[in-house]
Amino acid sequence: MTSPTSGDEYLTTDTIHFTGAGHDQEDGTLTGASLVWASDIDGEIGTGESLDATLSEGNHRISLTISDRQQKKLTVMNDIVVEMLVNEPPIAAILSPLFGESALTFLTADSIDFNGVANDPEDGVLPRESIVWESDLDGQIGIGESISASLSPGVHNITLTATDSQQAEGIGLTIVRVHAPPTVAITSPADGDTFLPGDSIAFSGSADDLEDGALTGASLVWASDVAGLLGTGGTINANISLGRHAIALIATDSQGGVGTVTISIIVALPPNVPPTASIESPVFGETFRTDGDIAFYGIGNDTEEGSLKGASLVWTSDIDGEVGTGEAFNVSLSEGTHIIILTVTDSREGAGTSSVTITVVAPEPTATPEPAATPVP
Fold first, then answer.
1. CATH code, domain with 31
2. C-alpha separations of 224 from 256, 353, 355 in Å
3. Among 108-112, 283-287, 302-306, which range has the highest average pLDDT?
4. Which domain holds residue 291?
5. 284 and 224 share a domain?
6. 194-211 tens-digit pLDDT
7. Are residues 257 and 189 in the same domain?
8. At 200, which CATH number?
9. Is residue 311 helix, strand or coil?
10. N or C, which end of the chain is more exposed by having fewer CB within 10 Å?
11. Closest C-alpha to 6, from 57, 75, 59, 80
């Protein structure tokens, strides 16, 4: 027996190479079934001058028995040791977030990045499905070396468990604190409310935080997407510009958690009442001559703006077009029956009109006197 030799040590997973030779004075070199290999633990291993085999755990006495054609036998023995391979568990470690870092406080809205490594002495780098992340509050949160997850509020014990092919486990641990942002409510004004320019609008709201309780003062910020910062505190009054405003109440707690609620309000002018127009002169049905000026006098009045003046009053004739502006002026018109319209317009483009019909005629021709007759001598 040339291999194995006495004292050799192997693992149960090793393939052991057996080699030996037999010679007989009559038969010469013995081969094949004439050489039988056996273990006192596993029994017959095989036959021949060379073979490979694995053995069970234990202290084996290996025998090589040779037989000639006369069935005379000779046996040689060597003692070897076969040990069970002890499976080492994988090594698992969490790289981030690391336990003890100040950055370990997250918000419920955050997507937290978890990174870890898992290696096994026997299997090497473990496959993705062998690496499991768990939270003691939320249960399993992902699979693989790198994951992203959002967690519920509270202090989470995070476990990275790596399992090798022999079901041995390695575990990495970290602790993550997850903070819920404050809850925010606006009690007034109501969403969709409408106000007039110049109104002092009362804004009222509140915010509650799981750790801090009710938030007050500078923790509460009011802002408009049009007007910008409006003020701080649970209740403020503000005058804001015309338009549609998205009003936000932003609450920030001591952990930096931010909660926001938004409503929409409108600041708009009241419905416009159009002005009224009154023609005082000329009066309906009057007749004028083309060679004389006509006195125009009218009044424009607006509910919001009061008496209107100047270019706010426009006079037109359906024959001559625009004939003047203002409350009073004199102008002559062409011959015909004119519909005179006074249009009064306020600053919001509201308009009112008044009209009269007058007649303008050409002057009657003047008779030319005949020359006096010359007396006959």
1. 2.60.40
2. 22, 41, 48
3. 283-287
4. 276-361
5. no
6. 999 999 999 999 999 988
7. yes
8. 2.60.40.10
9. helix
10. C
11. 80
